[in-house]
Amino acid sequence: MKVLVLNSGSSSIKYQFFDTDEKIALAKGMVERIGMSSAVLTHTPHGKEKIRIVGEILDHSIAIEYVIAVLLSPNHGVIKDKKEIDAVGHRVVHGGETFSGSVLITDQVMNAIKENIELAPLHNPPNIKGINATKEQLPNVPQVAVFDTAFHVQMPPKAFLYGIPYELYRKYKIRRYGFHGTSHRYVSERAAALLNRPIEELKIITAHLGNGCSMAAVDCGKSVDTTMGFTPLEGLLMGTRSGDMDPSVILYIMGKEGLSISEANTLLNKHSGLIGLSGESSDMREIENAVLEGNKKAKNAFDVFTYRIKKYIGAYAAAMGGLDAVVFTGGIGENSDMVRRDVCANMEFLGIKLDENLNQNPKGEAVISSEDSEVKVLRIPTNEELVIALDTEKIVREQLNNLPS
């Protein structure tokens, strides 16, 4: 099956076009600056050079039209007729408590996504625009929604409830939702496959470390806890997000600095984290270089970053009553041997022993712990788009099989 995977933002659309039988991306690209006369589409067919197209792309519908046109291009395309697009899978950020898995998009599903806008006001509206635009351009092609939050929806109440009046949860659905669910699900399943053990027997901690960071406790294939909460602000220190902190701190700062709610939100989400502590950068590569040069503020930022990951490993091992594997993924998790080394240092008491040679030179999906490490440590590149494509294929095939003969 050939599946177009879309990730629609307010002014951009990322896409990949998959052959799910071969599990390869035939093409990938991105439309940026939607709504401007100088919008840009970058497109890379499998095994070919990247091309760049500049034009006037005023809305998401025109952006999808451009994407389809470049997929059909005689010189740069990978299909000859748009009928070859069998299905479209959409990344949708927030499914609230409504969705515990991926679903075929219907009017009812669209209404539910709209109802969750207040939980993700920056993300769900452009996701909806992408779905509507696709419906205009490919009216008879089935569409599937794959939710960032779905993997975490079945967490137990002890993990998702906050210590606030229960009526506020019932009234406003204030709870831990968690994000990066597609990534956590993918790498935990890949870890089980690499270890050649059924995921139903494993207790796995997954660490998705990028500009946004989150961890999940995956017990027998199910997320039982995760670090991000009601929003992606909670949990680990991130590129520009504060992560865990005493709620009174922001109230104190708002009073001292005279900040509005909007300004406080910007402070916590855009000017905190690595960039806030270091004063240098939100990019871990630059932080690490500054650390090696003796920059104390960068060292503080690095230490806080890895210390929080280490703390959550201990917490989640306790929550699950054991631990079989720790998985590092995401831009930092996959590429920073310094972060992995610091997180795993002095963790032998928990059964974690890193092989430093393997840690410094991992290739693709790899076990980087020593042979005698009771807990296996893995480095697994994530592939959320492939998960979306495969979920889309599965749901569309099930729909076709259920049609009356």
UniProtKB/TrEMBL annotation:
Residues the entry annotates as binding ATP: 14, 208-212, 283-285, 331-335
Gene Ontology biological process terms, A to Z: acetate metabolic process; acetyl-CoA biosynthetic process
UniProt pathway annotation: Metabolic intermediate biosynthesis; acetyl-CoA biosynthesis; acetyl-CoA from acetate: step 1/2
Residues engaged in binding substrate: 91
EC number(s) per entry: 2.7.2.1
GO cellular component, one term: cytoplasm
Cofactor annotation remark: Mg(2+). Can also accept Mn(2+).
Coiled coil: none
Subcellular location, principal: cytoplasm
Record GO terms (molecular function): acetate kinase activity; ATP binding; magnesium ion binding
Catalytic activity: acetate + ATP = acetyl phosphate + ADP
Nucleotide-binding listed as a keyword: yes
Residues under site feature: Transition state stabilizer: 180, 241
Annotated TM spans: none
Subunit-structure text: Homodimer.
Family: Belongs to the acetokinase family.
Function: Catalyzes the formation of acetyl phosphate from acetate and ATP. Can also catalyze the reverse reaction.
The name this protein goes by in its record: Acetate kinase
Gene name in the database record: ackA
